[in-house]
Amino acid sequence: MNNRILVVDDEEFILTLIEFNLQQAGFEVITAMDGEMALQKATT
């Protein structure tokens, strides 16, 4: 089972920083810049 996490933030730098750190910790990271995009990604 993959450890997958959805990260949502409207600041691209913060999103990239969080994504990098979570990937280093072994997570599969999915990112979204807003709530609408997050809902789309969460339901697929």
Automatic annotation (TrEMBL):
The keyword Membrane does not apply. It comes from the Bacteria. GO terms for biological process: phosphorelay signal transduction system. Keywords: DNA-binding. GO terms for molecular function: DNA binding. This is DNA-binding response regulator. Residues 4-44 form the Response regulatory domain.
